[in-house]
């Protein structure tokens, strides 16, 4: 065959001397087509290539690999060359042979070894060497085998949040192998949604749960971590952020006739729920047949039956919780009427 082009990467070569260790040779008619990012170079069909490693499909660059006792690991490479290279695997420099726990396979230009049921004796430097008449290529990787370690959870803390806010639970979770992590609320497993984000960073051992637009989300949250060595969990509470009492409906003045019933009503919000005290002219009122004190939700009511001149005066409602206190006042007076003679 005639030499169509004797340039490779812009450098002139004599026939049959075009070589490259980072490309794939492919047939194009009777010629081999050398594909390059910036050019196409044709060489005659009789060219034989050096052994070429096309890259590692599994375990990038065959670098450092960490596995756990009992695990299974696989090394996989692709090798090209003409004549077809002979591929040999090594463990710490000694040829690795197939056995009950070592599986060696070849599928076209793909070569793999699989190590099953790992033990500490499998920790070593593994290498792959490919050789043909034109040259050789090799790659290597360090396999580290570790004892499994049960998960441990640190840093999960109780949170307070206001309605409509965003809250984040975060924990550091360790373990070998890296644990599977599940988040629960009041015993029910949570899934990611438009309001809930579950994230993990195995490398930094950081795991988080983010809840947006907090509403009916208060309760107990559980983080559960498990791996082959065991499992553990940690709990944290999400509570409504403390709010001091606020009168959303103030007391109103009451004017009645003697011996009639007087009713005072207020609405109070706060977190925790406030404790409420009623006073009449500075004296604390207790629930009785004559003074009835009731509460329903955020609604508080005082009823004074059969009012006499002794009950005329100032009524005060005081609300208090751990975040603060508030009060509201109103007057109780008698309706004026013209004197009558019986």
TrEMBL record:
Q: Which InterPro entries match?
A: Ig-like_dom, Ig-like_dom_sf, Ig-like_fold, Ig_I-set, Ig_sub, Ig_sub2
Please classify the protein's predominant subcellular localization into one broad category.
Answer: cytoplasm
Where in the cell is the protein located?
Answer: Cytoplasm
One GO CC annotation: cytoplasm
**Mind telling me which SMART domains this protein's record contains?**
IG (SM00409), IGc2 (SM00408)
What the entry lists under SUPFAM superfamilies is as follows: Immunoglobulin
Q: Which Pfam families match?
A: I-set (PF07679)
**Keyword set includes Cytoplasm:** yes
Residue ranges constituting the Ig-like domain according to the UniProt record: 70-144, 148-239, 244-333
Q: Which UniProt keywords apply?
A: Cytoplasm, Immunoglobulin domain
PANTHER family recorded: IMMUNOGLOBULIN (PTHR47633), MYOPALLADIN ISOFORM X1 (PTHR47633:SF4)
Family the entry assigns: Belongs to the protein kinase superfamily. CAMK Ser/Thr protein kinase family.
Q: What is this protein called?
A: Putative muscle m-line assembly protein unc-89
Q: What is the lineage of its organism?
A: Eukaryota, Metazoa, Ecdysozoa, Arthropoda, Chelicerata
